[in-house]
Amino acid sequence: MTREGRMADEDRDDAAQWDAVEEATELMLEGSYHEALVKLRDVIRTDASNPYAYHFTGVALFELGQFEAAGAAYRAAVKLAPRYTGARVGLSHALRILEETRGAIAEARKALEIAPGDGDALYALGLAQAAAGDKRGAVRSIEAFLDSRPEFEAAQEARAMLEKLGAGEAVDDGLDGDDDAN
After folding, report:
1. CA-CA distance, 30 to 32, in Å (whole number)?
2. Closest CA to 70 of 107, 102, 45
3. Global pTM value
């Protein structure tokens, strides 16, 4: 089989795996995480090599506060698809919450190796660095995240984190409504 033929087969398989998790992701958008987990379990029973099913299982478990189980699901997704940046970012957040900051930082850095400048990975790295007590690294990563032009709400969260880290003036852009000229 030619390289192009293999790539076409891989694209078809990838599309089928995405399609398999669509209903579950819609349930998660509605906040129905338990129902989504049932659907994802069925997808995994049908295709245990679907990294998206494991990733979204991690997302649902994370939202339900089951961080250890979420980490295990993200690890399964990463094992199946080592270049799956979203799964690495999710794993980083789960590890950070589990106070495994060294692993959280490592996963965020691996995500950045795969996708340099990825905003989600930069933010995950900054939060993990802050949790590890690396204030300077956290500020640098979160400022890089802000440079990636995140959505307004995410940018506000990042600015609040910078305030907590004592770096608020470094990123004051006037969006907070305070008029420093008074």
Report:
1. 6
2. 107
3. 0.84
